[in-house]
Backbone:
């Protein structure tokens, strides 16, 4: 890979001061190249948004680092952050609460440019160009968020990210609040913009089907740890970690036969749905739900190791394909 647009190195995030609770993020690393989407997938509470917040400087990491285009911004001052904010933008799930209802779309779009002291005529020119890039009509600039549908508001949020001409965009569940056909339109728009502008996207979603659509590579997160990392096709078609098997089995797919095969795979592995049992601090966080768990799983933490076409953190990683095949 050329210089990554975004690098996350050995990230650890603890909420609060007490170190007795397990960290929300536990030694997670990944790179995203220009023009690439990395999907971050996992069930609710797995730490996806926490990684997004740490990248954006909204949550200070306990340790580890975040590099934007090779520059360490982990502990950047607020002044340095204003500079990196040009290159690093965000789109959140909820366009209703992330857009100020009292401001016109134009006012919202020029706001970051005002902060950057872009000359005024250029601010409005760039705002109009950003609206055009996301497929909104030119007169949108004088209208208010309430005059738009959910999908259109999310386009406005994307335009607000684009207006600074960033290198990296963090997308935290950007289509989760939209209906299916609007989801597809917004995902297509994001893919087009990424390809045209060589954007690096950190794409956060709980829905593997959505992640699969947009991402080239994927990190499967469970309780703050990377369970499997690899090309999206490998992880979704030939998962090597028992948790990825559970996740792929749960994801809706368009073909009933494939859906059935996945359900059977899930049953073969006997993996339950979201558990509440507290993970042993030392061992594999998935042990309380994993049908393959043995003593060593509860005692020692499995490292990420090459497995098939991806990398997986499982002591019994080599046995997963055979188990699936012999069900
Ligand atoms: N501000 C916070 N203070 C304390 N704990 C938090 C805070 N935000 C998130 N958490 C905890 O960190 C874990 C990961 O949360 P989050 O990153 O929001 O997960 P996800 O986005 O995958 O649903 C959860 O256990 C959650 O309860
Ligand atoms: S390390 Fe053990 S408990 Fe964890 S996923 Fe692998 S087999 Fe299951
Ligand atoms: Mg979240």
Residues:
């Amino acid at each position: 890979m050329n210089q990554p647009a975004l690098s996350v190195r050995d990230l650890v995030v603890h909420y609060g001061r007490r170190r007795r609770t397990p960290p929300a993020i536990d030694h997670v690393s990944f790179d995203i190249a220009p023009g690439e989407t990395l999907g971050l997938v996992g069930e609710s509470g797995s730490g996806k948004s926490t990684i997004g917040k740490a990248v954006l400087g909204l949550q200070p990491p306990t340790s580890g680092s975040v590099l934007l285009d090779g520059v360490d911004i982990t502990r950047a001052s607020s002044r340095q952050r204003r500079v990196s904010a040009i290159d690093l933008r965000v789109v959140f799930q909820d366009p209703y609460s992330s857009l100020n209802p009292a401001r016109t779309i134009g006012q919202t779009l020029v706001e970051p440019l005002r902060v950057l002291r872009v000359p005024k005529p250029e601010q409005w020119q760039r705002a109009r160009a950003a609206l055009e890039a996301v497929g909104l009509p030119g007169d949108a600039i004088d209208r208010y968020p309430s005059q738009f549908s959910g999908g259109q508001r999310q386009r406005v949020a994307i335009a607000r990210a684009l207006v600074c001409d960033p290198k990296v965009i963090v997308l935290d569940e950007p289509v989760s609040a939209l209906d299916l056909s609007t989801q597809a339109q917004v995902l297509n728009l994001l893919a087009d913009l990424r390809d045209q502008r060589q954007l690096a996207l950190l794409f956060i979603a709980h829905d593997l089907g959505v992640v699969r659509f947009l991402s080239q590579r994927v990190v499967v997160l469970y309780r703050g740890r990377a369970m499997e990392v690899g090309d999206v096709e490998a992880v979704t078609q030939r998962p090597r970690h028992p948790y990825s098997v559970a996740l792929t089995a749960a994801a809706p797919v368009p073909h009933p036969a494939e859906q059935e095969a996945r359900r059977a795979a899930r049953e073969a592995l006997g993996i339950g749905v979201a558990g509440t049992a507290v993970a042993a601090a030392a061992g594999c966080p998935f042990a309380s739900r994993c049908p393959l768990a043995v003593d060593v799983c509860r005692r020692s933490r499995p490292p990420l190791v090459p497995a098939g076409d991806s990398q997986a953190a499982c002591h019994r990683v080599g046995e997963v394909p055979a188990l699936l095949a012999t069900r």
